[in-house]
Amino acid sequence: MRQVDPNGFGIATAPDTVRFERLLPGPAERVWAYLTEADKRRQWLAGGEMELKPGGAATLVFRHSEFTDEEPPEQYRSMNEEGFVSQGRIIECDPPRLLAMSWPGDGTESQVQFELFPEGEKVLLVVTHTRLADRGEMANVSGGWHAHLGVLRAVLEGGETPAFWSRIEALEQEYRKRYRAD
Length: 182
What we know:
This protein is an alpha+beta fold. The chain has helices at residues 28-36, 38-41, 77-82, 135-157, 165-179; strands at residues 11-14, 17-25, 57-62, 84-94, 98-104, 109-119, 122-130. It has a single domain (13-179), classed as Alpha-D-Glucose-1,6-Bisphosphate, Chain A, domain 4, CATH 3.30.530.20.
């Protein structure tokens, strides 16, 4: 069932869950490559290798400076300059349709699921992030997903990379309002 915000914002579908939908240039195999191949994924999210089988390692190496020249807000400065490695595991993998993985967080492990649905020459990407600790964490990850998915769309369309860091704080504030996370 499609649950879409007309302005492209993610929506809270449960007290611990956010969902994003993006219609992207296809085919599904191409979008799948940008989700699973380190050299492609690092252009919009994070590099790192994945063992594409249940229980396999999912290493994400975040180096935002690889896709944006913007200065990050103070709270993200060390992550931007030094990088950040996140170690999760693959929960489910059904190429090129479904990828689910654990997502380490502050004290809790959440889960991210990527689903691909062909729609003509385009592909509907649905990102669902579950098991989030509270509304504050929901606002934080929503701002991040929103900005990262904007970069993914630009990469797939061959366009100019949109602002990243300058949008993060504004997006997080908007999500805080939407989720009443204060």
